[in-house]
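Work package 3, deliverable 3.1, input record:
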Amino acid sequence: QKEVEQNSGPLSVPEGAIASLNCTYSDRGSQSFFWYRQYSGKSPELIMFIYSNGDKEDGRFTAQLNKASQYVSLLIRDSQPSDSATYLCAVTGGGADGLTFGKGTHLIIQP
Amino acid sequence: DGGITQSPKYLFRKEGQNVTLSCEQNLNHDAMYWYRQDPGQGLRLIYYSQIVNDFQKGDIAEGYSVSREKKESFPLTVTSAQKNPTAFYLCASSIGSLETQYFGPGTRLLVL
């Protein structure tokens, strides 16, 4: 059984600071890693995906993957109040059975 | 306008009743998925389909059924056997099983 672990939070970060969200996964065969943002009452929307070890940057967002340690992280620079949401980490394995999600981290950006 | 649509936005079920949630996509994606989300929980996979006329059970398929007669459509039926159906139901699709999944707006199911 694949497991994805996230700290549920809430994680409180001052506006303009860097928010760091972490995720660990149990299946060493996991190949694709995704970060979704979910506002309350809404469906998840994709923030970033990463397949290879190292960093991947997209605007204010940076995803970091370390397959040896089985963790993936998301950094949000210059945090804005609109970044306040729940962030879901998801991974895929070698099969066709969709994504395995963590329970999400609730992020609060304080103005 | 490409995307995934789900209807209805809210659905009320009476005890003993079967209800069907609609999911349609015009993204030409082969794979489609149904997830259930409960408060404080992550998304849990109910059913998935990689191709028309084929689908597989996910982690929590009991009390649910699906069909995939068309590439664009993947309806989910919540049967009377599902004793705790109150949840937020999310449909997703992707080009392939390891590719990015895109979500519809969701259907919130409540029991009367």
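Residues 68 and 75 of chain B are 7 Å apart (CA to CA).
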